[in-house]
Amino acid sequence: MVRRRDELQGLLGPLETEVMETVWDQGDTTVREVHAALGETRDLAYTTVMTTMARLASKGLLERDTSGLAHRYRPAISRDEYARTTVTSVVDWLVERFPEPALSYFVEKMDADGEADTADLRSRVERLRQQEG
């Protein structure tokens, strides 16, 4: 997935999220199958689902197989990979644009849980760095 640092464009809209959740659940699927699954809870036009899936493919989130009569789609990344990439992108964006409020929030959040002081926070950051390296 392409990381976009200038804007928060990497986030999916509500329909894109529903479509991705359905494709992650179904694996290899067609527009018709996704439309049928979504149609159990909402009234959507087939062409709306088709357009959404084509856009998700152009964003690199779905792979499209056009070799058969019906185009088949499968996830290009896992649910966990998407979540990790999205969280990283959002946190990077916040820290780059609003460093003090973003970091203050993280410290306050940890303090609210009764788990952190500055030394503890530094220790956690160091452990994460070691795990990545």
Structure summarized in a few sentences:
The protein is mainly alpha-helical. Helix content is about 60%, strand content about 10%. It holds the Pfam family Penicillinase_R.
Tell me which oligomeric state these chains represent. Answer: single chain
Average of per-residue pLDDT values: 85
The strands making up the biggest β-sheet line up spatially as 1-3-2
Radius of gyration: 19 Å
Strand percentage = 5-15%
- Indicate how many domains the architecture comprises: 2
CATH structural architecture of the largest domain: Orthogonal Bundle
Helix content estimate: 55-70%
Shape: elongated
CATH class of the largest domain: Mainly Alpha
Give the biggest beta sheet: 3 strands, antiparallel
What is the name of the CATH topology of the largest domain? Answer: Arc Repressor Mutant, subunit A
How many DSSP helices? 6
Distance between the termini: 22 Å
- Given as residue ranges, the uncertain stretches (5+ residues, pLDDT < 50) are 1-8
Q: How are helices and strands ordered from N to C?
A: HEHHEEHHH
Number of strands: 3
GO biological process, one term: negative regulation of DNA-templated transcription
Keywords: DNA-binding, Transcription, Transcription regulation
Protein name: BlaI/MecI/CopY family transcriptional regulator
Family: Belongs to the BlaI transcriptional regulatory family.
